[in-house]
């Protein structure tokens, strides 16, 4: 059993007969009344996000998880196939467990959290950013850059990303996996 003082981002807990991962938390100590912890929880079974407030000292059921490095092999419909980089064991995960499956490129390494009690995968942590090649982008119009204008571009995984007007087909761009937004153009 853990208490609210042990809450941190990425902690997995049992709550309402489900397993949740803490995405955000904030310890609040108002001037009047007891302290509490405001949290944002994501269900690891269906992906729904809910806001919850725990009073200070509240006991929570912590789920013991182990993180293992897996390599993404290939998608097959709504199923994604991964391989453990140490044991070469393969697992298949549903698309809804992934935070941003449309940004996952074959060969990409991810961290998979596995419940030690049941040996079932709980969540997949993507790298902070990925570098992808632009496969389709409308041509930018010269002189149309007075404002922070963007256009839609398609990357090699099929995802659509808003990019600045100077990005062309064949360019490599860095994308933030948390928000799915363009970060910078990568020169090699």
What does this 3D model show about the protein?
The chain has strands spanning 2-3, 12-15, 18-28, 36-43, 49-55, 59-62, 65-76, 79-84, 90-94, 109-115, 121-125, 129-137, 150-155, 160-164, 172-176, 181-186. It has 188 residues and is mostly beta strands. The chain has a six-stranded antiparallel β-sheet with strand order 1-6-2-3-4-5, with no helix packed on it. The relative contact order is 0.13.
For the largest sheet, list the strands in their spatial order.
1-6-2-3-4-5
- What pattern of helices and strands is seen along the backbone? EEEEEEEEEEEEEEEE
Classify the helix fraction into a percent range: under 10%
Structural class: mainly beta
| Radius of gyration from the alpha-carbon trace, in angstroms | 20 Å
How many β strands by DSSP?
A: 16
Distance between the termini: 50 Å
Query: Which ranges are low-confidence, i.e. pLDDT below 50, for 5 or more consecutive residues?
Result: none
Number of helices: 0
Strand content: over 45%
Using the alpha-carbon principal axes, give the shape: flat
Mean pLDDT score:
86
